[in-house]
Amino acid sequence: FDENYKTYLEAMGIPFFVVPLILSGEERLNITVNDATNNCSITTITGWATRTSTFKFGEKFSMKYGKGSMSGIMHNICEKPQDNEIYCRSEEREKSWKFESLLRFSPDGLMNQRTFVTQNIVTKKYYRKEGAEQSEDTDPRFVKTTAKFEIDHSFLEFNDDDDFFEDEDW
Questions:
Q1: Which of 12, 30, 62, 69 could form an SS bridge with 159, CB 3.0 to 4.6 Å?
Q2: Which of 63, 57, 68 is nearest to 18 (CA)?
Q3: Do 50 and 44 contact (CB within 8 A), yes or no?
């Protein structure tokens, strides 16, 4: 991750004593894109939890996140603008938060550029592709965590009865 990731976490209200645990922990992403069905599954694995998000490109979906006072519902829509990119817009309505995420795949791994639009904070996280050979030419940002591009398919419940994505203004 880059130097803005801590600020990004703090802006989302992550407690000060939890931020160092997140920053020092490992995170693994298992990503599967099925071009034939236009579906994508992303499983995030950390030392604390495993979460799977399954969606169809171009269709809105919502998912619960967090626990207790740090919980809510994130409304999302994701697209695949290029073969090596996944772009998502998200909104947390109760907190009036808006986010964007751009996943960009390369031979070295994955870069996830996250933007907390409401707070004007941009951060990048880098994931090394599991099994990828490292050489002198390997981008040094792809060394902390791993991304594995296969998945055990799990599914989330979708909630499609709102008009969030009908708003052309954002």
A1: 62
A2: 68
A3: yes
